């Protein structure tokens, strides 16, 4: 197959667009797609200060790379989760990327934040690793963005991530989650950063191809706690449907933005309060992060007795 | 494993309920489930005249069998689709069931209804077999029910059918279809029969087990035109998710009834007109069946020239 742009030998095939690209044209296509998504979905402009959440994996590093190439004002935020060799390697890949590009990287070490490393939290509370990790990451993403004066928090979620999350929300018909699932979440409170997902129209295969062709050194291993995560089963199911009908994931996610979401937004409303402990927005009296932190403190106090 | 009712040896295991039954207790459980569904979802009462659409497959014959055992006033309706040996065998299984029970069976032979047999329609129009079949069956189901004075049309759709259909509608976010997907569709027009699906809470495995244990002789083969139908891929994907998390299909379908459907019903409204050709309700000026019939007539007239 030949590149649809320059007729050179194609190295990346995109079945849902029935197209193929050589290495150079693919990188251009990928960059254009991200630029167009940011513009069409009114994510941010060159006047914004963008905090990019970077795990060290292909998606977040590809995102940061594209945003730097497009000339956006960015800094990276890496959360060191304390998950043994996996986190050490993730931290190393991320810092090496930042040093190589000469860009600013903010790091939060969860173990140093009052024993919030994921294995410790999971063993001292009754939470699963994935649930604790989600609560903690969301808290620091927002806190660092707000306190650092960033107007935007960008994450590397791709089309496969969004489709899998949507399938999970739909299989359980979680109206509140469905009303809130969007690649653009506006800052509806002064202490809430605007959150965007500029890669949500690009598949996992495309972000992997981009990272590979750009020579980005990313961590290939998945988190050791995620090996049986239900999310992976959703991805597998969607991959099979995509194989049979290319474009399934894209029309699922984009159709939801166009048709589905408004149905749930119309029937769901969320009242934001302020957490009595940390002062960040929440729907309850005490936010999920502070409740988790209290559980950890309690467990530690118990262990000292 | 032992039967949860009588502690005899179990022959049917239902993972999503974490239960198992011997043959006798399973038949009782299955019958009770159908009776409860009919009552809880206000499908019909013993005063209704119920027309049961029977293909000759396990689901529709199991449904008819249960309704007869529960003492409902029923007749069967079989549509002979003219699909070679498959239809001949389906017709034979259905008539034999009706004769064996001494119950009334109405048969429509599509080839005799102006060359509406499915292979002929597909070859003389540009329709796929499955799309033509759907339009034609829906028309006759409703017409025979209304003209025969039946107050209810019952079909054998099971949980797997409903979950697969829902997944297809959700993947494409077809709001109008989502608003209209329900195991109970009221008769919103004098020439529209009330349509119900009393097996929608029971899985394909359960209806197959019931038909087998009741000694019902049903056609095992699938329609030869359906071998690559997208519906089968949806079922496969859902089966894998069900295997990982028993109860997935049930919570998907029942959650939709509770949470999802109202969101779409609130944003979608359908205005019913009357078909200028046949007089049955439709959303356009001429109904889908009459348009299909016109295409077939046109093709035949063209062939005669």
* Rg over C-alpha atoms of chain A, rounded to the nearest angstrom: 20 Å
By helix and strand content of chain A, what is the structural category? alpha/beta
Output the number of helix runs of chain A: 11
Order of helix and strand elements from N to C terminus of chain A: EEHEHEHEHHEHHEEHHHEEH
Oligomer: homodimer
3D shape of chain A: globular
Sheet-strand content of chain A, in percent, reads 5-15%
Which strand order do you get reading across the main beta sheet of chain A? 5-4-3-6-8-7
Quick tags:
305 residues, 11 helices, alpha/beta, homodimer, six-stranded mixed β-sheet, two-stranded antiparallel ribbon, 10 strands
Report on the structure:
The structure is a homodimer of 305-residue chains. The first copy, chain A, contains eleven helices and ten strands. Chain A has helices spanning 23-40, 58-69, 84-101, 118-124, 129-147, 159-171, 175-180, 204-213, 230-244, 248-267, 288-304; strands at residues 12-14, 19-21, 49-53, 73-80, 105-109, 152-154, 184-185, 194-196, 273-274, 281-282. In chain A, strand 3 (49-53), helix 2 and strand 4 (73-80) form a beta-alpha-beta unit. The N and C termini of chain A lie far apart (69 Å). The mean pLDDT of chain A is 95.
